[in-house]
Amino acid sequence: AWLLKYIFLSSAVSVFVFVSLSVVVSVCRCLCLFLSLCFSLNSRVLMFLGQLERLNGEAMLADAEIARQITAKILHLIQTQEKTRKEIMSKGSGGMEVILATLEVKDDWSVCRDYVSLPVPGGGRRVGVLVSKGGTGILLQMLLSASKEWPPSEELMLQLHSVLAKVGPKDRKFGVKARLNGALNVTVNLLKQNLQNPKLLLPCLQVLRVYSSNSVNAVSLGKNGLVELMFKIIGPFSKKNTSLLKVALDTLGALLKSKTNARRAVDRAHVPVLLYIYQDWHRNDTRHRHMLIRKGILGCLKNITNIKLGRRAFLDADGMRILYNTSTECLPVRTLDPLINTSSLIMRKCFPKNRLPLPTIKSVFHHQLPHIPAGGPVAQLYSQPPGVDDVVDESDDNEDAEAENDTENEEDKDLHNDDIETDISKLRPRETPSRPFEELKIYERFFLELSEDFQGFNFDNPKAAVIDPVTAPKSHCSITVPTAQGLPPKYPTTAPLQGERHLAKDARPRPETSSPAPACPLDLDTINITRGQDGRRDHSQSPTHSGAELERDLLQKLEQVSLTRPQGRVGGGRGGEGSRQHRQPPRLTGVVCPRRGGVGEESPVEEGAEEDGDEGAVLEVPDTALLLPLHDPDLYVEMVKSTRSVPQYSQVAYPDYFGHVAPTFREHILERVYGVQRTKIFQDIERLIHPNDILDKVVYDLDIQSPVVDDGESLKFNSQFESGNLRKAIQVRRYEYDLVLNSDINSNHYHQWFYFEVSGMCVGAPYRFNIINCEKSNSQFNYGMQVLMYSVQEAIGGRPRWVRTGADICYYKNHFSRSSIAAGGQKGKSYYTMTFSMTFNHKDDVCYFAYHYPYTYSTLKMHLQKLEALRTPQVYLRQDILCETLGGNGCPLLTITAMPESTSNDQICQFRNRPLVFLSARVHPGETNASWVMKGTLEFLMGTSPLAQSLREAYIFKIVPMLNPDGVVNGNHRCSLSGEDLNRQWQSPSPELHPTIYHTKSLLQYLTAIQRAPLVFCDYHGHSRKKNVFMYGCSLKETVWQTNISATSCDLHEDLGYRTLPKILSQIAPAFSMASCSFVVERSKEATARVVVWREMGVQRSYTMESTLCGCDQGKYKGLQIGTRELEEMGAQFCVALLRLKRLTCPLELRNHAHLLDVESDFIETRCKVTSPSTYVLEDEEHSFMEEVDYSAESGDELEHEPDVADTHDNHLSDSESNSQRDALT
User: Fold this and answer.
1) CA 1020, CA 1134: separation in Å to the nearest integer?
2) Strand partners, 730
3) What is the C-alpha separation between 277 and 312, in angstroms, rounded?
4) Where is the composition biased (Basic and acidic residues) (predicted)?
5) Closest CA to 659 of 710, 621, 696
């Protein structure tokens, strides 16, 4: 204490006697810092720092030699004693301030040279302390001052740049500070003067690398000649100064991120130089010790090729071939993957943009609308001047690479979601009805159950009260089963079903004529079922076996479908009209039409038939009645007759005719093979490298009227059947095909749904199929989803089923240009490729591929009739036709509830006053899983179980099972014939353009007007971006919680019952995920069914239920792809949940289930985060792969939106609920 007192008094006296007032303030500050050090540092360092403080105060009088000695001692202690170093560099010690104060006041450069070593002896967090104390500015000022000395001290410059190289990366404003202090030119000039001095060159380059990370600095440094300097430093392979070369390449790469510098490099012909240098390092670095240098060269090329001139220079310098060859040589070495991936990115970016091989991106088919909407994409489509090329822009290659990057921009989106509705007035139900009741009274006829008194009803024959379903008029067009044509006459007898999975994989091409005759169509009226010995089907028997036993039974009960022509229909056969073929062993023979000049097999003649008789076809139809009680091939054909399509389809797809029996084995989510995407991309690049290997042969094309010439060397494709979608097939290599999907009718985009037939395959050949005009920027195909395949040979062998198949599946951006017309005005966009490989097992098989399990409109009509036939007396079922669609198809409306036990007043009153549940599905045609869920719901509701009966007694169900029949029939993915997303028309639907939505909304408005609004409204959808099944609901409170708007507790008052149903489902349905549910209302969803029914009808429990197209990552089905069995189970579980919901509405029961309403704790636990402007999930949907998945072909790639985000689209969002106009545009 006495020592401190003495020092303080001595210092104070000397200060007041010898120094001015300004110096007093400075010294007092230093002494205060010194005193704080006394309590934290050891005595020896304390003494040295005290002496340093005094020297700072006596700067003009102190001896420089003494200062150097003190500094050296402090530096020694810092370097040798870890504890001392930590104490001096800690934020609260004040040691750093003493050192920095010393640097500020000393003007003796020999002293400063020693002081510069003090601030960052250990780097790391201590550098952060230096930055926080203002050390960056002091060091830059010292650099500027030292540069004014001539000649500048080389040792001081070396130390200053060494320290700045460590400080720069820790200071976010380092580049700005350096530019404002004028330090940029100091370092550049020093570099120019010391190009042959590696010792000083290295720290200068390290500092320039940090300078260049600021875009403004990069432009300034480029103007000062730094780009040319870098090319003087880098050079061919050398074992000397590799560290220097690495830093120089990093600096050059940072400079070339500036477009101005990239153009400068191109103008000075540096691109060929970089390619030469890379080749030289690749050739000589045989032991791969300098991979970072090679990667640095590629980084420079990557940045240069971000501009159009750079890409052109790269191609002119044969860069594609150079990088392709070097990358191919690197493939065997796993550690060189960073080089391969970067090379792949550069090559994809520089691959010349190709035109999509179509005459127009508009759909092949056209339907004239009653009138054109005033605005929107349909109006733009119709107003497009004739002769405009809508496939590609005149200048599709932007000057600079697209600024689009899916992954980078997602992080920004997480920070804020501008799509959330913030207007509380729009989050409340409307108080006034939107339409007068007089207009709605016409819908009373769809609610007979609300006034039914059952007087005169015969309870001994309840079916008499059920209104017969209304059917549309039958079509008179000829219908054929396409897979019955051209098949070989003999197949082996089916063998017992094996336990393992059977996949149809490949077969030989069937020779056909080069100019085949048109297929001979068969009238549906000529298709008949050959019955068993008893002459009838037995539907009364319910399945009592499971698994392999059922399928073995299926093998033993085969029925034949005889497709015969009336006499004289084709040729001059003598067979009587309606004659049938004799029963044959299980086999499939085809209708073989006369061939001209063909080398194929002759038409088979059945035993006993006249030589010139009718040519017939016998299809072996597995009797699936035990497994598929709702399927009947005869009935399906009848339903097809009354289905109207724009292309006027005249064929029936084999899978729809035979039906689908869910496989008994599990189908696991496919594990991604490491490097698969890279391999596929390299195969695409080979098209440019080796153009002579490309066949480019069109084998299927809907745009041309004449048939495509068939030489027997290619696969045969077909999609001209209900729900089919394939526009064009091009044979690229012998076993590789590019496939182009058709746009939705009256649209120029929405390419996702596919369903087509393939035949003429070779067994064991590795076929590759590329769907090249996909639009979404990501897909579950990258996360384990597989395509679906149906093999005809497998079906006649007793396994009629869709199976997940395909290997080497990936989804990535390709080189086909997407015009601004198709991309919503955005230029420079590209399409995406979904590719998969397939090996076929059966010779002369016919296989079908689909995006998801097909479910056609005719299938729905068949199922509804079968349900009607299987109805029990306890079920009240009425089927109405709600309206007729634009295409002339009926939109079914079902009413299902329980029949009253009698005509007593109590029974009738209870019957009429049951709460209503309103269900709908399939507003988006491509979401076929929604129909399978609906099928499960309908089968449960019509079932005989006690639960089903209880459910019917609890509710009246109004169901619209298919809101968009036209889209389903015509193979659309998202739109109706109006070219619009019907789930964006609920606010103001047009009765002419959107009849199904208009009348469905009118039904709900009528119920609201008579005070019978539904207790639950749920619209079934499918989701292509996420796994599991989940719900979107509507909540005022949860929407406000996601925004910064202020609201009173009164404003946020709402019943929390909207969470009850999803909570119940999460407890009973293994595929359902509560964590993926969201109850936030967004502006882009304001015209969807869920939001409109909630807002305008006041239905609190208004939901969209999304079912994955891929599989599950939680619960019982974790790691499995979803199938029809799981989807139908989900539909049934939804019914069970409704029954539980009914029981929970009882006050006595509610007390015991209060946890189901604990929304606050639920919401806090899940802590939903925004992943896109339109969806909330618990965490990232997918885990990253070992191989980085790069979906883009550019260095900065696309703002993303799901089918709809306006990305401006909302891509992670529900496919079902994304922004209509932008859907799938990114």
Assistant:
1) 11
2) 698, 738
3) 19
4) 413-432, 1202-1215
5) 621
- Distance set, CA 908 to CA 350, 455, 461, 463, 593 (Å): 74, 10, 18, 18, 62
- Taking the C-alpha atoms of residue 212 and residue 215, their distance in angstroms, rounded to an integer, is 7
CB distance 311 to 262 below 8 Å:
no
What is the residue whose two structure tokens read 């002759």?
602
Q: Is 178 left (phi over 0), alpha (psi -120 to 50) or beta?
A: alpha
One-letter amino acid of 418:
D
- Residue 384 burial class via C-beta count within 10 angstroms: exposed 0-12, middle 13-18, buried 19 and up: middle
- Closest residue by Cα to residue 279 from 248, 227, 332, 236: 236
Distance, CA of 65 to CA of 1007 (rounded, Å): 97
Spatial separation of the C-alpha atoms in residues 164 and 170, rounded to whole Å:
10
Separation of alpha carbons 83 and 1105, rounded Å = 61
* Cβ burial, residue 262 (10 Å; 0-12/13-18/19+): buried
Neighbours of 1108 (CB within 10 A): 27
Instruction: Kindly calculate the radius of gyration of the chain based on its CA atoms and give it in whole angstroms.
Output: 38
* Structural tokens at position 179: 């530019």
Q: Which residues of 747-774 are buried (b: 16+ CB within 10 A; e: fewer)?
A: bbbbbbbbbbbbbbbbbebebbbbbbbb
Q: For residue 940, give the nearest of 1110, 1130, 1223 by alpha carbon.
A: 1130
3-state SS, residue 737: strand
Burial of 165 (0-12, 13-18, 19+ CB in 10 A): buried
- Helix/strand/coil percent split, the chain, to 5: 40, 15, 45
Q: Are 728 and 751 in contact (CB under 8 A)?
A: no
Q: What is the pLDDT of residue 1175?
A: 35
Rounded CA-CA distance 1156/724 in Å is 44
**Cα–Cα dist 1149/120, whole Å:** 69
Task: Please check whether residue 857 is in contact with residue 722, taking contact to mean a CB–CB distance below 8 angstroms.
Answer: yes
Give per-10-residue mean pLDDT for the chain (1226 aa). Answer: 52 41 39 39 58 54 58 63 59 55 51 47 60 80 82 82 86 89 89 87 92 92 92 89 93 95 95 96 93 95 95 95 95 92 92 92 91 78 78 61 36 48 62 78 94 73 49 50 46 33 34 35 37 38 42 39 33 34 30 32 36 44 72 92 94 94 94 90 92 94 83 91 97 96 92 96 95 93 96 93 96 91 83 96 94 97 94 93 96 96 89 95 97 97 94 97 97 95 94 96 95 96 94 88 62 77 95 94 90 93 96 94 96 96 68 48 41 36 44 36 36 39 35
Asked if 911 contacts 449 with a C-beta cutoff of 8 angstroms, the reply is yes
User: Could you write out the DSSP letters of every residue in 684-730?
Assistant: HHHHHH-GGG---EEEEETT-SSPPP--SSS-EEE--STT-B--EEE
Pairing of strands 802-805, 1029-1032: unpaired
Count of C-beta atoms within a 10 Å radius of residue 334: 10
- β 728-733/716-718 pair status: unpaired
What pLDDT is attached to residue 762? 94
What pLDDT, on a 0 to 100 scale, did the predictor assign at position 81? 64
Encoded tokens for 678: 């890279």
* Non-local CB neighbours of 887 within 8 Å, separated by 6+ positions: 367, 644, 645, 646, 965, 966, 969, 970, 977
Cis peptide before 516 (omega within 30 of 0): no
Distance CA 482, CA 757 (A): 9
The answer to whether the CB of 214 falls within 8 A of the CB of 179 is yes
Give catalytic residue positions.
1106
Q: Fill in the amino acid letter for 1140.
A: R
Name the residue type at position 240: K
List of E strands, 169-328: none
